[in-house]
Amino acid sequence: MAGSEAAWQIVNAGIPVIIHEMRGKVETFAHQTTDLAEMVCSNSFRSDDDESNAVGLLHWEMRAANSLIMEMGDAHALPAGSALAVDRDAFSAAVTKRLTNHPLVTIERDEITQIPSDEWGQTIIATGPLTSQSLAASILDQTDQASLAFFDAIAPIVYADSIDMSKAWMQSRYDKGDTEEERTAYLNCPMDKETYEAFIDALLASEKTEFKDWEKDTPYFDGCLPIEVMAERGRETLRFGPMKPVGLTNPHQPDVKAYAVVQLRRDNALGTLFNIVGFQTKMKYAEQARVLSMIPGLENAKFARLGGIHRNTFINSPTLLDDQMRLKSRPNIRFAGQITGVEGYVESAAMGLLAGRLAVAEAMGKPMQSPQNTTAMGALITHITGGADAKTFQPMNVNFGLFPPVDNVKGGRRNRATRYKEYTDRAKTDWTAWLQS
User: Which residues form the MnmG N-terminal domain (predicted)?
Assistant: First the structure.
């Protein structure tokens, strides 16, 4: 995501780019294709509300900056209520085609095993959540930092025609969406209390993936916890998380309130694939098929892909990077994307967008300041390059907690809608001014 976006921003300024992509030569555990910008964990860009949601605001800022990731996301969007979900295969194929066909882009399929020398000139390292071991070792060696990593998990994907629609139904929570397609964007599988309790028991007793010795001290990222880890934190945790039953009415039994609901979201434009929302897992494959078949409507489900878990390495950006995302010890090298400690597809692409634009300004001899922290992108870059405490630095999604308060706006839960609108209005004004500069 970050590398593709950075390249797009640079070539749109008339500067040629070489993209080094190892997939096609060196594969990873999580990727299924050799396309650029492949979506691995889910197919969602999350909320598209640019007035009261920080990630929706980030979408707005990226669109205003001619983002390739957002353009292709919009072109291959799927119904998802107030969220932006995309057909993952069509999306990554379109990103790849656009960059491959651009006259200023060269794509070389090779693995870069160490931080490039200064002879390369301006370089952006945007290796995502699965940086190769050799390059990661080189980065750690040159930055003299202890390894920082966390586990990321992948949710299973189900064939739509294997779902029992006599038990499941289509509805977005609280009927959100402007069209009927959006209001019926999610597939819902209800559970009564007895079924939920049996499901939790099976989840807790299931066989899990064994970690290697060198992985055992690696923490999870709280925004992407495996379902069995959530269940271990309390039997009701899932029922107040991805399985919350609120905002839904079962048309098969309209007078019966579900105790818990499993939601699935369309994963492709054809509607033939659905991913289980929030159901990242580290269960072994055979156990996944057994335990997930306990979900009403999924008793005979066939899986296009089962869930998994992988190690995600990132650098201690507050210590290592300056406010231009450059490596302090090697200022010709920038880092961008998830390796910098942002979490999420959109956040990663946004940091690629900034890295590309900042590199262009420097190449043209007109260095520019990073955007103000009153904008979504400015808040993220400020956080990773010095706003966060380096001693406790962990991956972060964009959120309004990263923004400076708006003057004369009351805090508290009751005033949240007004406050968030003030944040987004201010951000749009400041982001527009930064782009124009």
Answer: 2-366
